[in-house]
Amino acid sequence: MKTLVKTYNKLGREYFNMRKYKTGASYFYNELTETPTTLKLLRDVKGKRILDLGCGPGFYLNKLSKKGAKVKGIDFSKELIKIAREENPKVEVIFGDITKRLPYKNLEFDVVISPLVLGHIKNWKFVLKEVRRVLKKNGIFVFSVGVPFYECVKRIKIKNRKFKTPKDYFNERIIKTIWESNSGEKGKAIHYHKTYGTIVKLLVKNNFEIIDYEDCKPILLAKKKYPEKYKAELNFPRFCAWKVRKK
Prior knowledge:
Strand order of the largest sheet: 3-2-1-4-5-11-10
Shape: globular
Number of strands: 11
CATH class: Alpha Beta
CATH architecture: 3-Layer(aba) Sandwich
Helix content: 25-40%
Largest sheet: 7 strands, mixed
């Protein structure tokens, strides 16, 4: 997590600007691909008490507040927390380590969301335990992560043509990547690859019932603005979103 915190503290403002001002990869993958899918799973949130676990610069806080939800956010990046507070002055946003005990009451929330966060965490067991603790009876947890098969994609070349193919799917391991902003600034990120089987077992063993799932498909607006990325996502979706219920 320290590596990711350092990267977000360094690139957080540019990451936010790319999403807000509709430029670059972050706008495509977040606003046009992952976010619409997660919002689809959430459905009607009016009047719901929602915790955004790893809220980043507060995009979901803003969107869900406008839909009538009562939201709170927590994140580990001071730079992203600063932005989230600027963008959502009426929302409680706090700095905290989401891999430790959460500073919230038992049974406090109707819904917990965690978009593109769990993939950066090695051990989900304690996080899931805390999510269960702060959720009300039959509370909903919606999260998104990298598609397990996509995380294993390797690029190969055959007769001067480039192809993508999964490799070492069952080898659950650390995957290191480099993120680059529009200005050329770079930062490191670490993901923990888990198979579909491992994810399902973690959810079941921690008393969650899987009630919905979506591979994150970009919306049609993405086809016009990013035709190549759109086409690539239709063949190899990068993210997936899960909706589970506390049993």
